[in-house]
């Protein structure tokens, strides 16, 4: 679904159209490289500024990868993730468990939601096998006695 919004610069429209064609999130750096490979004359700073404007207008959403890099999609690409804290792999979740809550909040608080994010962090199956047995879930959730006594 191609969206051309009035009041957007040609670069902002170009970036929005490009994001609509993607199936997965993309970093600003990779977006810049992709746009340049299609012979679009655009600077990296312009890409960052355009993404920020599109985000503030409710057209683009940003999520942060485990390496700290921002990843962008259109708000129409509604997706949630399970993200491995060790290898950084993100696994898409097929359903949205909070749509009903979003609707209730919008109605009860007269708030317009452009998008929401939901992401769970943990270890994927292969990374769980790499974690030493001594670091099982019970032990990682405990505070050491010597730390808890220093109040």
Task: Please characterize this protein's 3D structure.
It holds the Pfam family FUR. Zn(2+) binds at residues 84, 87, 124, 127. One of its GO terms (biological process) is negative regulation of DNA-templated transcription. Fe cation binds at residues 78, 116. It is a single chain. The strands form two sheets. Strands 1-3-2 form a three-stranded antiparallel beta sheet. The protein has a three-stranded mixed beta sheet with strand order 5-4-6, with no helix packed on it. It folds into two domains: 1-77, Winged helix-like DNA-binding domain superfamily/Winged helix DNA-binding domain (Arc Repressor Mutant, subunit A), CATH 1.10.10; 78-140, Dna Ligase, domain 1 (2-Layer Sandwich). The protein has helices at residues 10-20, 28-37, 44-56, 99-109, 125-130, 137-140, 145-148; strands spanning 26-27, 60-64, 70-74, 80-84, 90-93, 119-122. It starts with 9 loop residues before the first helix and ends with a helix. Helix 1 (10-20) packs across helix 3 (44-56). By secondary structure, it is α+β, with helices and mostly antiparallel strands. Mean pLDDT is 83; it is low at 142-151.
């Amino acid at each position: 679904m191609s969206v051309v919004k009035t009041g957007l610069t040609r670069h902002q429209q170009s970036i929005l159209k490009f994001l609509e064609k993607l199936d997965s999130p993309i970093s600003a750096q990779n977006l810049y490289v992709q746009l340049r490979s299609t012979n679009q004359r655009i600077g990296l700073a312009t890409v960052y500024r355009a993404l920020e404007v599109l985000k503030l207008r409710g057209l683009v959403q940003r999520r942060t990868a485990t390496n700290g890099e921002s990843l962008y999609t259109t708000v129409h690409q509604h997706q949630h993730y399970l993200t491995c804290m060790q290898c950084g792999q993100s696994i898409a979740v097929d359903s949205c468990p909070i749509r009903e809550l979003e609707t209730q909040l919008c109605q009860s608080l007269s708030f317009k939601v452009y998008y929401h994010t939901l992401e769970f962090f943990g270890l994927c199956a292969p990374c769980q096998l790499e974690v030493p047995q001594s670091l099982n879930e019970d032990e990682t959730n405990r505070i050491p006695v010597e730390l808890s006594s220093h109040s």
